[in-house]
Amino acid sequence: MRKIEGQDTASIHYEDCPGKRTFAVAGVYGGPNPQGTSVVAHLYAEWGMVPSIVEVPVDEHGRGDTSKESVIKRGDINREIQATLVIPPEVALSIGGFLIEKAKKALEIRATVEIIEDGGSDAGS
After folding, report:
1. Nearest CA to 28 among 90, 95, 94?
2. Which is nearest to 87 in space by CA: 43, 38, 42, 44?
């Protein structure tokens, strides 16, 4: 601890653990555990499924006609769990507040960038 302007302060150092990964998150699924002691959040990435089989008619020269393909589907959407968080409710509320605050700021920045890229709101004046 040290004092800055008469106030006790502590410095916090953030480090990446050896197995740290960065991944895109499209959504979250989960809820409270049965005891109410934790919130379980499964973070997932999402995409449309690639069909398991695509059949196309073949002409006498062995060329496939993809305009007449027949698709055997596996489902519509795949959600791959990237990480699972088990969080005390108080921490989940804190993280939720942090995410809302930062998301609002990101949307403000995006709107500003879009205005600049469009030539500003006074363009042509």
Report:
1. 95
2. 38
Task: Single out the residue of 46, 45, 55 nearest to residue 75, CA to CA.
Answer: 46
Residue 27 corresponds to which tokens in the numbers above?
Answer: 């959504």
Q: Is 49 helix (H, G, I), strand (E, B) or coil?
A: coil
**In the numeric block, which tokens belong to residue 121?**
């709101």
The residue count of the chain comes to 125
76 and 48 in contact (C-beta within 8 Å)? yes
Which pTM value belongs to this model? 0.66
The model's pLDDT over 32-54, given as tens digits with 9 standing for 90+, comes to 999 999 999 999 999 988 777 77
Element (H, E) at 67: none
Please tell me the distance from the alpha carbon of residue 56 to that of residue 71, in angstroms, as a whole number. Answer: 9
